[in-house]
Design goal:
With about 675 residues, the chain is α+β, with helices and mostly antiparallel strands. The protein folds into three domains: about 5-40 and about 550-665, Immunoglobulin-like (Sandwich); about 45-60 and about 215-545, Glycosidases (TIM Barrel, Alpha-Beta Barrel), CATH 3.20.20.80; about 75-210, Jelly Rolls, CATH 2.60.120.260. Helices cover about 15% and strands about 35% of the residues. It is built from ten helices and 35 strands. The protein has an eight-stranded parallel beta sheet. Helix 6 links the parallel strand 19 (about 370) and strand 20. It is globular.
Length: about 675
Amino acid sequence: MKRVSAILVLCSLTWGLVAASQAQMRITVQTGRPGAAIRPTMWGIFFEDINFGADGGLYAELVKNRSFEFPDGIMGWSRILREGSEGYIYIERYPQEQVNAHFLRMRVGKTGQGFGLSNEGFRGMGIREGKDYRFSVLARLTDGASMTLRVELVGGGNRKLAEAKLEGFGSQWDEYTVVMHAQATEPKAHLNLFVEGSGTLDLDMVSLFPVDTWKGRANGLRADLVQMLADLKPGFLRFPGGCIVEGRSLDVRYQWKTTIGDPAERKLIVNRWNTEFNHRLTPDYYQSFGLGFYEYFLLSEDIGAAPMPILNCGMACQFNTGELAPMDELGPYVQDALDLIEFANGPTNSEWGRKRAEMGHPEPFGLKLLGVGNEQWGPQYIERYKVFVKAIKDKYPDIQLIAGTGSDATIFPNGPQEIDYLWSQYRQLKAEIVDEHFYRRPDWFLDNTGFYDNYERGDSELFVGEYGAQSIGVASPDNRNNWHCALAEAAFMTGLERNADLVTMSCYAPLFCHVDGWQWKPDLIWFDNLRVFGTPNYYVQKLFSVHRGDRVLPVEVADAATAPNGKPRFYASSVYDETSNEMILKVVNATAEPVRATIEARGAKAVGLSANVTVLADDDLNSENSFETPKKVAPVDSRIPVRSAAFRYDFRPYSLTIIRLMCQTR
Ligand code: AHR
């Protein structure tokens, strides 16, 4: 049966009958009065290299400190000096100045029962039985007739998972590669390199990648983690942060130009989350930039998300040094922004467009959005922001610029006044997009679903660029990704959707978290070296995104349940999907009781005979997902019959429900 025939044509009699029998809560959707357009960018994702999000996470490289550039050059490595072996292993410096300034020297006298070194990976290496792993290394033989490098992947109890040999090293630096086939699965393997023979062997860029990266790309990304992102159908990808953009001081700010080209030539710097929290020190956290700006653009394209780079604007993190680039030294920062636009969009005969083409992408990436700074505030920000706007708009009037409003108003010094000040400036400057952040307790999100209802409408669009309910407190190590937080975010998102005329983009933060390498909780997606699961918060984001729709429909909820503080605990928003001609209703019941409601598709000329219903629910607000029970809180689909444009539905306690009903309005 064709879908279009499964509809119910409505007459006034139907309305009369239904209306007369209603006594309980009523949700009225004005299907004939579509309002603001929902932008394709409405629900996006925020990526930052925090919690081992890039190195040790999305970036599939398994070797930590592969180029011996950590300040402690041997960090991540340990020497293997078994019985009877003699020799030295140490870090050397290239005689000439170069970005990647160090290499490893192994001077072997006797190999005895084993001479070499071992890499621990990022809290181990995830190795999967039956899969192939590509080992590569830059090497040269500086002394001795010939030497062999025996490469081993080893699991717990020294169980050998895979083995290979490399030989024939010459006296000049060259790359040597071998593919190893894993015989067993191990979540915390390590890599052993044994030298055989006597002489001196130099090594650099020691690398191990699964062959099965996302789309099988060399220097690629972890396929299972990218799939989680693709499944969100995100409208945009914000990268690379976050505070990581700012750096603790300007010398360690994120500079996109050092993150493109040959991965061996990308300049490693410290990761600012390395020692940010005393309760969670991660001294081995650096940025190799193997996942750099080219890879971010490619990822955006792969998952159908608009790329949204955020650039440093001459200000280091204001929670740290707050170092400022003097106004008369802002030129290089602004030039970086202009060059980035050329890198993303410029013709292949332009300087930066050519670099993009040389990396394998002659077509432009279609960059339209750019953030000027991250969580910046104060007059120092405004004066720098103005310089960026002028320079970028003069050359690229179509690029939309995002202005910051500092951090969450409740956590940065004088937050509310600072935000008022920034907004007063943005109104004068007619800022295009303004970014606001919310890291608050779940009850705040439940109480403030109307946050944007009465926000002044002017020239600026709103970007809710970071938010996440904090079960204990901002970035508390005890925060949980529980159903309470996720449900509160869902309620808040109904408010964002209702205000889509103002709020045109939003994203949860942070995105990824390595179970052994985190600094900040809560996070949307948790992973270890082999596995990944989505939190309840992930499924909330996914449901809003995959049921985005095209136009807001006005919704009234009569007799909604309230909390003792008088704030609602039952929420609804609706959109219309112009392709499928469906009304999409999103309802959050944040009470412990089931709620029976009559849903009225008012103004519909005809409705479907059944509706698709997706429910995300759990009776226990403390419920969480885990590696063992990854779908404890996960959406469940069903179909319900619909007998008229006003139909009854029982909303589960503590639930997010999405109802899609075919609905002709003309
Ligand atoms: O999401 C974690 C951090 O929170 C971001 O880096 C920063 O922008 C915010 O303060």
